[in-house]
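Checklist before submission:
- one chain only
- standard amino acids only
- sequence pasted in full

Submission:
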Amino acid sequence: MKKYLLILASFLLSCASSTDKGAVGIERRQLMLIPDEQIVAMAAQGYVQTKEEAQKKGTLDQNPEQVRRLNAIAKRLIPHTKYFREDAPQWDWEVHVITSPEINAYCMPGGKIMFYTGIIEKLNLTDGEIAAIMGHEVAHALREHGRERMSEELIKGLGLQILVMSGKLDAKYATAADQLTALAISLPNSRGQETEADQMGVELMARAGYNPEDAVSLWKKMGSTGGKPPEILSTHPSDTTRIKKIQGMIPKVMPLYKASAKN
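Returned file contents:
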């Protein structure tokens, strides 16, 4: 038992912020147990596999204009990642497009960006709205949210094991306890990560010369797609909550947008 407590204590000492705070003030400390280079390597491997599968299906980068457009937006955003991480502009960035009706996009650790044509075409996105999505997804990579979530899962599993071994939790209730932990801890933390990505993403787009108001119009479009779970059971804030928070951020980042227009 003492051994597990010592391990748990050492884990808790592994807390630090993965980014500088930027103009929006990101300062939360994070639990980072897994080495960054391992996460980046896993992400790169997964990205290559995704590209290869799409290539075989004939769905990778089939629309040259969309690929050009996304790369142009990324080229404007990426230099400003330095305000959160000094090393980020030198990451091995990639941008690709998969032909699919999915309303989806992501940026994997290390700067591997993927957009699906569904999100661009079904929502009829403007460049500013694409920049809002891309900035949000890039922020997840900068903030190492995937690494943080994996670390949380490790510590959660260890915590349940300690409770069972100490006799404070009957082993037969461990599964139920794990589900309650997901509702009480894991999901709210994920929603917190989503809010951080919104904050950082809005700053990135503003610095890159995209009107941060476009982030509001984006989430209004997202809200019209329907079919989403209640906020309490979702890792994403509701669109209404998200829009209100983004609107609250705009006065903070609007000067950055106006300054970019002068350069």
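Reviewer check: The longest strand covers residues 94-98.
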